Amino acid sequence: MFHNSLFLDLRIVDLSHNGFVGPLPTKYFNLWSAMVDVDKENTKYWHAYDNYMLNGLIGANLYPYSMTITNKGVKMEYAKLLEIFSAIDISCNKFDGEIPDVVGSLKGLQLLNLSDNILVGPNPPALGNLKNLEALDLSQNKLVRSIPTQLTQLNFLEVFNESYNYLTGLIPKGQPFDTFDNSSFDNSSFNGNLGLCGLPLSKKM
């Protein structure tokens, strides 16, 4: 069993495409303190080092870390990763239960993918605290009720997917929702939620 201190500096957690079951691991969300704050002064990139010896001298090759994450069917490629980059991807498992409010305390998150699980209950309004979020995928779950208006505070959101849940009510107005469209069945952020209405859907009320 890992000691709790080993989790404190985690910024990227990718547990996707496994067979994990049960509720989301709230106790671990509480431990990921490096994702709570954002040091915008830090512009350093993650690197790997490869030491070598040549003519008796020790040198090192420097390689930037890169990452590719598929979100809403779109491959997001990060050729370089800033040390402050934070992401959680636990998609394609069998996690159930509600999304815990503690996720909203991870204010450094830039990507959150909880898609393709069996999550229930409403979207927690606390997700509106994730002001640095660029991608949010909650699709293919069993989420209910309306989309909280607090999500209009996510001004950096570029990728958003709530498709194939059981959401109802009016889609919030304002950024970033005004930038989404419903022109493609495969790429719609809201497909499969028969109770949703309002722009950009054709069903107004």
Tell me about this structure.
- With 205 residues, the chain is mostly beta strands.
- The protein is 2% helix and 32% strand.
- It has 1 helix and 15 strands, in the order ββαβββββββββββββ.
- It is elongated and about 75 Å long.
- Fraction of residues in β-strands: 25-35%
Going across the biggest sheet, name each strand in turn: 2-8-10-12-14-15
How far apart the termini lie comes to 52 Å
Largest sheet entry: 6 strands, parallel
- The geometry reads as elongated
- The overall strand count is 15
Mean of residue pLDDT values:
83
Query: What is the helical fraction, as a range of percent?
Result: under 10%
**Rg from Cα:** 19 Å
Provide the succession of SSEs: EEHEEEEEEEEEEEEE
Overall SS class = mainly beta
Number of helices: 1
Which regions are unreliable across 5 or more consecutive residues at pLDDT < 50?
182-187
Helix and strand topology:
Elements: E1 12-14, E2 21-23, H1 26-29, E3 47-54, E4 57-64, E5 67-71, E6 74-78, E7 87-89, E8 94-98, E9 111-113, E10 118-122, E11 135-137, E12 142-145, E13 159-161, E14 166-170, E15 195-197
Q: Tags for this entry?
A:
single chain; 205 residues; mainly beta; 6-stranded parallel sheet; 5-stranded parallel sheet
Summarize the entry for a quick read.
By secondary structure, the chain is an all-beta fold. It has 1 helix and 15 strands.
